[in-house]
């Protein structure tokens, strides 16, 4: 349990999408969450279930596992993005290929409170999260009332309007040892 001074220090809520389709997918996702939780300015406050989903991009890729977490942080959006990229690198993410290729881990900063940013290196909210069931399904588990700061729509409403939900299969919670 966080003390009041610590809770006020971790003033921002952010939502992060996790995905993996190479190697020990669930193990890598769990390690990513653990590495984030070890950061002194990040507290993981919620974890979604894990969903097995079809890949976006080339059809010859393995299926993905996807999940979402909510964190409280004192970091700025850019600082949090730098931490996410560092965790990806630590876990073997190779960014030298095309954007849509298979990967050991993908950590996307989806929402950062009501923050909106549109720069070359950071766009908030994530520009394609509204049309991606593999992001919205786990996000709706942990933050159904979170609002898209651009449209004002709640995550649960965005999910209802999102195509592609039928392909996703919930395989268990992120911290469940039975999920492969």
Walkthrough of the structure:
The chain has 180 residues and is of the alpha+beta class. It has a single domain, classed as 2-Layer Sandwich (Alpha-Beta Plaits). It has 5 helices and 8 strands. It has helices at 4-9, 25-38, 77-90, 133-142, 155-160, and strands at 12-20, 42-47, 49-53, 64-73, 106-112, 117-118, 123-124, 169-173. A hairpin with a 4-residue loop joins strand 6 and strand 7. The longest helix has 14 residues, at 25-38. The radius of gyration is 15 Å and the shape is globular. The two termini are 30 Å apart. 34% of the residues are buried.
List the SSEs and their pairings:
Blueprint: H1 4-9, E1 12-20, H2 25-38, E2 42-47, E3 49-53, E4 64-73, H3 77-90, E5 106-112, E6 117-118, E7 123-124, H4 133-142, H5 155-160, E8 169-173
Separation, N- and C-terminal Cα atoms: 30 Å
Uncertain stretches of 5 or more adjacent residues: 1-5
Strand content: 25-35%
Mean pLDDT, all residues: 89
Count of alpha/pi helices:
5
Query: Could you say how many structural domains there are in total?
Result: 1
Which architecture per CATH?
2-Layer Sandwich
Cα shape = globular
String of helices and strands: HEHEEEHEEEHHE
What structural category characterises the helix and strand content? alpha+beta
User: What is the CATH class designation?
Assistant: Alpha Beta
CATH fold annotation: Alpha-Beta Plaits
Number of strands: 8
Percentage of residues assigned to helices = 25-40%
CATH homologous superfamily assignment: 7,8-Dihydro-6-hydroxymethylpterin-pyrophosphokinase HPPK
Query: Sheet bearing the most strands, described?
Result: 6 strands, antiparallel
How large is the radius of gyration?
15 Å
């Amino acid at each position: 349990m966080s003390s009041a001074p610590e809770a006020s220090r971790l003033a921002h809520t952010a939502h992060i999408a996790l995905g993996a389709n190479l190697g020990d997918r669930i193990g890598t996702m769990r390690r990513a969450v653990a590495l984030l939780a070890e950061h002194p300015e990040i507290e993981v406050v919620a974890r979604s279930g894990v969903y097995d989903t079809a890949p976006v991009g080339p059809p010859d890729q393995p299926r993905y596992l996807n999940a979402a977490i909510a964190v409280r942080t004192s970091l700025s959006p850019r600082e949090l993005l730098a931490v996410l990229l560092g965790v990806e690198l630590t876990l073997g993410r190779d960014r030298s290929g095309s954007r849509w290729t298979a990967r050991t881990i993908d950590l996307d900063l989806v929402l950062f409170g009501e923050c909106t940013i549109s720069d070359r290196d950071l766009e908030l909210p994530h520009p394609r999260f509204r049309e991606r069931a593999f992001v919205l399904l786990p996000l709706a588990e942990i933050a159904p009332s979170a609002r898209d700061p651009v449209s004002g729509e709640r995550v649960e409403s965005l999910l209802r309007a999102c195509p592609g939900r039928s392909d996703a299969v919930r395989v268990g919670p992120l911290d469940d040892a039975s999920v492969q």
